[in-house]
Automatic annotation (TrEMBL):
<dbReference type="GO" id="GO:0003887">
    <property type="term" value="F:DNA-directed DNA polymerase activity"/>
</dbReference>
<dbReference type="InterPro" id="IPR022635">
    <property type="entry name" value="DNA_polIII_beta_C"/>
</dbReference>
<keyword id="KW-0963">Cytoplasm</keyword>
<dbReference type="Pfam" id="PF02767">
    <property type="entry name" value="DNA_pol3_beta_2"/>
</dbReference>
<keyword id="KW-0808">Transferase</keyword>
<feature type="domain" description="DNA polymerase III beta sliding clamp central">
    <location>
        <begin position="130"/>
        <end position="243"/>
    </location>
</feature>
<keyword id="KW-0239">DNA-directed DNA polymerase</keyword>
<feature type="domain" description="DNA polymerase III beta sliding clamp N-terminal">
    <location>
        <begin position="1"/>
        <end position="117"/>
    </location>
</feature>
<dbReference type="InterPro" id="IPR001001">
    <property type="entry name" value="DNA_polIII_beta"/>
</dbReference>
<comment type="function">
    <text>Confers DNA tethering and processivity to DNA polymerases and other proteins. Acts as a clamp, forming a ring around DNA (a reaction catalyzed by the clamp-loading complex) which diffuses in an ATP-independent manner freely and bidirectionally along dsDNA. Initially characterized for its ability to contact the catalytic subunit of DNA polymerase III (Pol III), a complex, multichain enzyme responsible for most of the replicative synthesis in bacteria; Pol III exhibits 3'-5' exonuclease proofreading activity.</text>
</comment>
<dbReference type="GO" id="GO:0008408">
    <property type="term" value="F:3'-5' exonuclease activity"/>
</dbReference>
<feature type="domain" description="DNA polymerase III beta sliding clamp C-terminal">
    <location>
        <begin position="246"/>
        <end position="365"/>
    </location>
</feature>
<comment type="similarity">
    <text>Belongs to the beta sliding clamp family.</text>
</comment>
<dbReference type="InterPro" id="IPR022637">
    <property type="entry name" value="DNA_polIII_beta_cen"/>
</dbReference>
<keyword id="KW-0238">DNA-binding</keyword>
<dbReference type="InterPro" id="IPR022634">
    <property type="entry name" value="DNA_polIII_beta_N"/>
</dbReference>
<dbReference type="GO" id="GO:0003677">
    <property type="term" value="F:DNA binding"/>
</dbReference>
Length: 368
C-alpha cells in the first residue's frame, strides 16, 4: 500500500475514528485503525465491537493494500508533523510515514486480523439534517443512565407514533422526551446506546447542510448512520424499554412560568451548600416567587428568590440540583414552565410554548 495525502485532512479523520478506540481493549487488535487504500480513496475503520466508525478520504493511491496500525501512536506522531503533506506506505505489517525532513516506521498487524464490520442493507429508514439531529440528541441524552448494569436505560428509545417519532431517555430518576415531526419509511421501535448517539452527533456536527441517513438491520441487530464520507455502525440494545408514558403527570397543583436564566442562577447558588447531602435543594413556591435554598450543617446555607407567575398554592419540593440544571440547560426558551404535582410526585419542565420537548424529574424525599 502507498498513498499521498494532506496531513491535516488525514489527521482530522483519524481523530474522529479514534474516539471509539479504547485505551485497554479486550483484544489487542481493537487498539488499531484499519487503513485500506483503493481507487484514490483511503478508508479508516476503528471498532470496539459495539460501535464502529468507517471514514473515507480522497487521496492519491499509487499502490492498493490494507494494514492495521496502532491508532493512538499514529495519531500522536502525525499531530507533531509540521509538513502539510505526507506519504504513507506499508510492507507486510510495517508502515512507513515520510514527510519533508521526517521518516518513521510503525509496526502494525495484518488487515486479516481486524474484525469485519458488516455492510448493512441499503434500506434507509430515516433521514436527518445534522444540526437537527445534534439538537435532538443533546436534549434527550441528558437523562440516559450511565450504569452498565442497566443496559436498557443506557439507551435512547426511538419509536414511531402517529405524529412522527419519539426520542426518549430515562435513568429512573428523570425522563427526557422529544417529539420529532418526521415520518419514517416504516414503523420503528429501537433502543440505541446513548453513547453511540453522542458519537454520531459529534461526528456530523451542527451543520445545517447535508444529511444523515439511518439504516436498520434487524437481522444483524445493528443500525448505521451514514453521511458525508462517514459511516457509524452500532449494535442495538435488546430488551423492552420502560413504559415511560405512565410516569408523565397529567394534572398539576401549580404550573408557574419562570425565567430560565434566573432559575439556573438560583439553583447554582443553592447547590454550593448541598454538595455533601446528595445535591438536594429545596424550592418553596409561593405568591411572592420561588425561594431556592440549600443547607448543610458543616458548610452553611444560602437562598435566593426567583420571580414566578401563576403560583396559586404554596408548596415546597426537594430536588437533585444537577437533575434540574441538566433539564433547564437544554430547553430552548427564555421562559420555562415548571409544573408541580406535589412534593412526592414527578414534576415537568418544558418550554412555555410547545409540547415537543418534556423533561420530567422525580423529587427527592426528605425527612423534613
Amino acid at each position: 500500500m502507498k498513498i499521498q495525502t494532506k496531513t491535516d485532512t488525514f489527521l482530522k479523520t483519524l481523530s474522529l475514528n479514534n474516539r471509539v478506540v479504547s485505551q485497554n481493549p479486550s483484544l489487542p487488535i481493537l487498539s488499531d485503525v484499519l487503513i485500506e487504500a483503493e481507487r484514490n480513496t483511503v478508508t479508516l475503520t476503528t471498532t470496539d465491537l459495539e460501535l464502529s466508525i468507517k471514514s473515507q478520504i480522497a487521496v492519491a493511491v499509487t499502490e492498493s493494500g490494507a494494514v492495521a496500525v496502532p491508532a493512538k501512536i499514529l495519531q500522536e506522531y502525525l499531530s507533531n508533523i509540521a509538513d502539510d503533506k505526507l506519504e504513507l506506505s506499508s510492507e507486510k505489517e510495517t508502515v512507513t510515514i515520510i514527510s519533508t525532513g521526517t521518516k518513521a516506521t510503525i509496526s502494525g498487524n495484518s488487515a486479516a486480523e481486524f474484525p469485519v464490520v458488516n455492510k448493512l442493507p441499503d434500506k434507509k429508514i430515516l433521514e436527518f439534517n445534522p444540526g437537527e439531529f445534534h439538537k435532538i440528541i443533546g436534549t434527550v441524552n441528558v437523562a440516559a443512565a450511565v450504569d452498565p448494569t442497566r443496559p436498557v436505560l443506557s439507551g435512547i428509545s426511538i419509536k414511531t407514533i402517529k405524529d412522527g417519532l419519539i426520542f426518549a431517555a430515562t435513568d429512573g430518576y428523570r425522563l427526557a422526551k422529544r417529539l420529532v415531526r418526521q415520518k419514517s419509511s416504516e414503523p420503528v421501535e429501537l433502543i440505541v446506546p446513548a453513547r453511540s448517539m453522542t458519537e454520531v452527533s459529534r461526528a456530523f456536527g451542527e451543520e445545517t447542510d447535508g444529511k444523515i441517513s439511518m439504516f436498520v438491520s434487524k437481522d444483524e441487530n445493528q443500525v448505521l448512520f451514514s453521511g458525508d464520507g462517514v459511516q457509524i455502525y452500532t449494535r442495538l440494545i435488546d430488551g423492552a424499554y420502560p413504559d415511560y408514558e405512565q410516569i408523565i403527570p397529567k394534572e398539576f397543583q401549580i404550573a408557574p412560568l419562570i425565567s430560565k436564566e434566573e432559575l439556573i442562577k438560583a439553583i447554582k447558588l443553592a447547590a454550593v451548600f448541598s454538595r455533601d447531602i446528595g445535591s438536594v435543594i429545596h424550592l418553596k413556591f409561593s405568591k411572592t416567587g420561588i425561594e431556592v435554598s440549600g443547607i448543610t450543617a458543616q458548610v452553611g446555607q444560602g437562598s435566593s428568590v426567583v420571580a414566578a407567575s401563576n403560583v396559586a398554592k404554596e408548596l415546597t419540593v426537594a430536588f437533585n440540583s444537577k437533575y434540574l440544571l441538566d433539564g433547564l440547560s437544554v430547553i430552548e426558551d427564555e421562559v420555562v414552565r415548571m409544573s408541580i404535582s406535589g412534593p412526592t410526585s414527578p414534576s415537568l419542565l418544558e418550554s412555555r410554548h410547545g409540547e415537543e420537548y418534556k423533561y420530567i424529574v422525580m423529587p427527592v424525599r426528605t425527612q423534613s
